[in-house]
Amino acid sequence: MAKDKPSDIELLRTWTLTPAATLGSAVRAKGILLELRARLPMSSRKSLVLESGEIVLAMPSSAKTEFQAAVGIVSSAMKDIESLPVIPREIQDILVIKQGERHRWLADGRLPSAGTRTVRLAGRAKQITFHVFDPRVVEELLNNGTVDEWREDDIAAAAENRRRAAYKAKLTRSLKKRAKKSAASGKSDDLSPSLDDWAQFDSEGLLR
């Protein structure tokens, strides 16, 4: 086997991804790689890879100028990489939550948005817009066990909603039954509350 010529020796540079950057997520690490690649010229993107928690840039020595330019771009981006907004698939992996939970908690304000981002899908003309999240907020949610508390709150709220729905259904059946009896006897039941009355009681919290 022929020995490599000097011109075939690779130029190599690595950057370590810290836990503060990845938040312990392989999905987040891959997202950071894609973000860094997007900042490079198209010809340099495949030279940047993720290996064992490190961002690795490798090029042949014949591409010294291109290599130096790529090093400058990646090094500059890595300075603020821990502040890179967290995208939906990343936060779901970091917090181990489902898409439905992310949508629900975002809608009710428990999960604060750090803004929106619009991207064009690869090979398509269509653009999509989605919410992104502050990595430090996500880290706090992860460390404080807040997600477990939210799930417990959701379970309690769902149980209360079912109880109230069952009680309202029971009241409705009772009122209809009394109305039929009154109609059959030819008497009016002025003392029986109307459905509007019950709705007012419910709005005032009397049925809770």
TrEMBL record:
Superkingdom: Bacteria
Region (Disordered): 172-208
Biased composition (Basic residues): 172-181
Name of the molecule in the record: Mlr2029 protein
Organism (species): Mycoplana ramosa
